Amino acid sequence: MDKEVIDAIRAKEQLPESMTDSEIAQEYKGTYTAARAAISLDHKPLDQVLADTMAKIFPFMRKK
Questions:
Q1: pLDDT tens-digit profile of 16-25?
Q2: In the list 4, 8, 17, 43, which could disulfide-bond 37, CB 3.0-4.6 Å?
Q3: How many Å apart are CA 53 and CA 1, to the nearest integer?
Q4: Which residues, other chains included, contact 16 with Cβ-Cβ below 8 Å and sequence gap of 6+?
Q5: Does the pTM of the predicted model rise above 0.70?
Q6: Domain ranges of the chain
């Protein structure tokens, strides 16, 4: 499991720093949580995608 995925799982699940990366990898390997953490590294959240799209369509709606 990649270090970035392990860090994302640690943050999302609020795991203690005392857990080693190998313990997290072993416990979360093949789980839904690990899959979501990996996907979140490559994709923007849906709210951000919608905001970006609305800003393109309606320029006056951009956040300042």
A1: 989 999 999 9
A2: 8
A3: 33
A4: none
A5: no
A6: 3-61
